[in-house]
Design brief:
The complex is a heterodimer of chains A (224) and B (300). Chain A is built from eight helices and seven strands. Chain A is an alpha/beta fold. In chain A, helix 3 packs antiparallel against helix 6. Classes of the chains: A alpha/beta (224), B mainly alpha (300). At the A-B interface, helix 3 and strand 4 of A face helix 2 of B.
Chain lengths: 224, 300
């Protein structure tokens, strides 16, 4: 079967992910399969914490240096910019915004998650490095909220990604978000925020749930 | 003095410089926060960030060059430090400075950026590569007025040794290059803004631009190394400019006060000016600072 036929067969394939032959400057033909070349499909592994005393110190540092991934998924992302202004000033608590999932440790799912966005949220979450924490903002992430009967949004976030802290409300104000950050800090200091390890342990269950709702699954199972 | 003792003092100096760099970064964050009417992060936040980065449990590598990128960057910062005389008149804090150290330091200033280019290139993230392109073009235009200023000072004192340049400036503020060669100082201090990469010249690393330039793919301990290097580089660049234009330092206290104000100059400009696009900043360095540099060469 030629490459074009293979590509036609998989109707959901992203044009960027199609197999292709590229002519190098030397005149050599390079065969590229983005699904294999651009992604790593190894399963996530459980990273055990250090010994108790060291881990307590590291957790204290981690809790006071929360790097947030600035990825707004729903209407709740509107509540995040004011956090950085002089009125709320989340910097006081060591909360900083990072533009790339590689460097961030906290992922805020801000509001409803459409199925399309869920796919991107999963990719972003998997690209973050262990230990990573997830805050679910707004009622939509708990039970669907006002979108409970919508055809294209998910109702319960923790079927798909391990959530550390829920912040209820529609919409929660920035103060509620700050309270959520403080709750997350308590959890980290107590050593209970092990979402990444939980995700690795129950990987098959999470993947089954994700694939049940994302019909056009055209990426490897774990793509960091 | 034996090599071992000299090396021990150099490493101790590096440790002090790293810590002063981290504290200084925290203080400057605090100052910029106050300008924005915020309380801002605590001054020890850079330490927490470093521990957090070094203690991440997982990391992803993209190959050998990806590992070497931050190491080259660190070698750039530490390389400048190794050949920089810190305290004038002290036999302990002159590091490994020698008669031609100024040329070597000029080379090391570019070295780190090139190392990052190789590392970020291997990550093959399009944003990294765009960021590197921007970074290299900006550094190139910054180097031109700075090099003219250095040539002017070298001609003025007939030496390429930093220790000699500092020695020639002793004896009060009227002996400083700031006073005797104002054009070179002006060109150098404007180039300093470009080296420090605060606003208006922070397009390369700004999170709001193509996120966030060269270190897009760097995380965990890789980013920790880059952050440590940034802290060292801030102080080391300030010490270099202090030695070149502001009479050097005769004690650690003087060094800390002078480097604080030199670094503060870039933060001060950054706090009150909006960001340039990369083409604007490149052109800007080729206008006023370049003109001042040429004037410095003409009127030595």
């Amino acid at each position: 079967m030629t490459i074009e036929e293979q590509n036609k067969k998989n109707k959901f394939i992203d044009p960027d992910l199609e197999k292709r032959d590229v002519l190098s400057p030397d005149g050599e033909v390079i065969h590229i399969d983005p699904m294999k070349d651009y992604f790593c499909d190894a399963r996530p592994t459980v990273h055990d914490p250090e010994n108790k005393v060291v881990e307590k110190f590291l957790n204290w540092c981690r809790s006071n240096s929360l790097w947030v991934l600035g990825f707004g998924t729903g209407c709740g992302s509107m509540e995040i910019p004011p956090l950085m202004t002089s009125r709320f000033d989340a910097n006081r608590f060591g909360v900083q915004m990072r533009p790339t999932p590689r460097q961030s440790s906290v992922f805020i799912i801000s509001g409803y998650l459409a199925v399309k966005t869920l796919k991107r949220a999963i990719r972003s979450y998997e690209q973050m490095q262990d230990p990573k924490y997830l805050i679910a903002l707004g009622s939509c992430t708990i039970n669907g909220g006002m979108y409970y009967d919508s055809y294209n949004t998910i109702n319960r976030l923790d079927y798909y990604l391990p959530v550390d802290v829920y912040i209820a409300g529609c919409m929660p104000r920035p103060e509620a978000l700050l309270a959520g950050f403080n709750k997350l800090k308590e959890r980290i200091k107590a050593g209970r925020a092990e979402g990444a390890n939980e995700y690795a342990e129950k990987f098959d269950w999470y993947k089954a749930n994700q694939k049940k709702i994302i019909k056009d699954w055209n990426m490897p199972d774990y793509n960091w | 003095m034996s090599f071992i003792v000299r090396l021990a003092y150099t490493l101790l100096g590096l440790f002090i410089v790293l810590n002063w760099g981290l504290i200084q970064t925290g203080l400057m964050n605090k100052i910029t926060a106050r300008v924005g009417k915020r309380f801002g992060m605590p001054f020890y936040q850079p330490y927490l960030n470093l521990v957090m980065l070094y203690s991440r449990r997982s990391s992803v590598s993209h190959g050998v060059m990806f590992y070497l990128g931050p190491i080259f960057r660190l070698a750039g910062g530490v390389g400048i430090f190794l050949f920089l005389p810190l305290i004038y008149g002290s036999i302990y804090w002159t590091n490994f400075s020698f008669s031609g150290d100024l040329v070597l330091i000029l080379y090391f200033q570019f070295f780190g950026m090139l190392g990052m280019a190789l590392g970020a290139g291997e990550a093959s993230h399009p944003y990294s590569i765009i960021g590197i392109g921007r970074g290299l073009s900006q550094v190139t235009t910054v180097e031109i007025p700075f090099t003219l200023a250095i040539i002017s000072i070298a001609v003025q004192y007939h030496t390429l040794s930093l220790a000699d340049i500092v020695a020639a400036q002793q004896g009060g503020i009227t002996h400083w290059v700031m006073w005797t060669n104002p054009f070179a100082t002006a060109a150098g201090m404007l180039a300093f803004l470009g080296f420090m990469r605060h606003s208006p010249f922070d397009t390369v690393m700004a999170p709001q631009e193509i996120p966030i330039g060269p270190p897009t793919e760097y995380h965990s301990a890789f980013l920790g190394v880059l952050r440590s290097n940034a802290a060292i580089l801030h102080v080391v660049e300030s010490v270099l400019f202090m030695n070149l234009f502001f009479g050097g330092a005769t004690s650690w206290v003087e060094l800390i006060i002078k480097t604080f104000f030199i670094y503060f100059w870039s933060v001060f400009v950054g706090a009150v000016t909006p960001r340039f696009r990369i083409d604007q900043s490149s052109r800007w360095f080729l206008k006023v600072p370049l003109l001042l540099g040429i004037l410095a060469i003409i009127f030595i």
